[in-house]
Amino acid sequence: MTDRIPITKAGLVKIKEELHHLMSVQRPAVQKAIAEAREHGDLRENAEYHAAKERQSFIEGRIQEINAKFPKFQAVDPAQQTTESVVFGATVTLENVESGDVLTYQIVGPDEADIKQNRISVQSPIARALIGRSVGDVVAVTIPRGQIEVEITNVAYA
Q1: Of 56, 75, 94, which marks where a domain is finished?
Q2: Which stretches within 22-139 are classed as H helix?
Q3: Among the three residues 75, 107, 126, which one is the final residue of a domain in this structure?
Q4: pLDDT (tens digit, 9 = 90+) per residue, 74-127?
Q5: Can you give the residue range of the structural domain that contains 123?
Q6: Of the candidates 99, 96, 98, 77, which has an alpha carbon nearest to the alpha carbon of residue 88?
Q7: Are both 45 and 84 inside the same structural domain?
Q8: What pTM did the predictor assign?
Q9: 52 and 86, same structural domain?
Q10: DSSP structural state of residue 2
Q11: pLDDT tens per residue, range 6-48
Q12: Which CATH number does the domain housing residue 136 bear?
């Protein structure tokens, strides 16, 4: 089935926690803020009311987005991988052949990618270049600044 969305088990837990927080904490809080803002009278010039309504719209949109994706999520436990090549869930250490810089990325689903945490989407150009490769392979990767060559120095599944 092509409409499956890969996600790590840890990523699925975080999405479930986010949904629970949105529904049990943020939704009631914004509903209360809207009710309080209504008590202040004229809604046309009430900044608190408009801000709360905007926040409510964001929260409801995010809840709908998560609920629409839930049936499509396909949870993968990276620790269950037995391959030595790069596949979804792998944590890959790379060395830039030219500069010697070392980078480590985990290949995750699009809904859990976060470059600040070195988690890149399986759909990213870097991940696509690495999938199926093994330790010792030198791979040409296209990045915004152009193309670089990296050597895979380690592949781990945790």
Answers
A1: 75
A2: 27-38, 47-69, 125-130
A3: 75
A4: 999 888 888 889 999 999 999 999 999 999 999 999 999 999 999 999 999 999
A5: 77-156
A6: 77
A7: no
A8: 0.80
A9: no
A10: T
A11: 999 999 999 999 999 999 999 999 999 999 888 877 777 788 8
A12: 3.10.50.30
Instruction: Let me know: does 134 contact 155? Beta carbons within 8 Å.
Output: yes
Which string of DSSP letters, residue by residue, matches 93-105? Answer: EEEETTT--EEEE
| Distance from C-alpha of 110 to C-alpha of 112, rounded to nearest angstrom | 6
The total number of structural domains that make up the chain: 2
Evaluate whether 88 touches 77 at the Cβ level (below 8 Å): no
Indicate the SS3 state at residue 142: strand
Q: Do 72 and 4 contact (CB within 8 A), yes or no? A: yes
Residue 76: both structure tokens together = 């993968």
Calpha distance 68→17 (Å, rounded): 16
- CB–CB of 74/5 below 8 Å? yes
Q: Would you say 95 and 101 are in contact if contact means Cβ atoms under 8 Å apart? A: yes
Q: Which amino acid is at 45?
A: E
pLDDT greater than 50 at residue 1: no
Q: Do 71 and 138 fall into the same domain?
A: no
Q: Give tens-digit pLDDT for 44-78.
A: 778 888 899 999 999 999 999 999 999 999 999 88
Q: What is the CATH number of the domain that holds 53?
A: 1.10.287.180
State both tokens at 5: 């969305």
Q: State the residue for tokens 């926040």.
A: 55
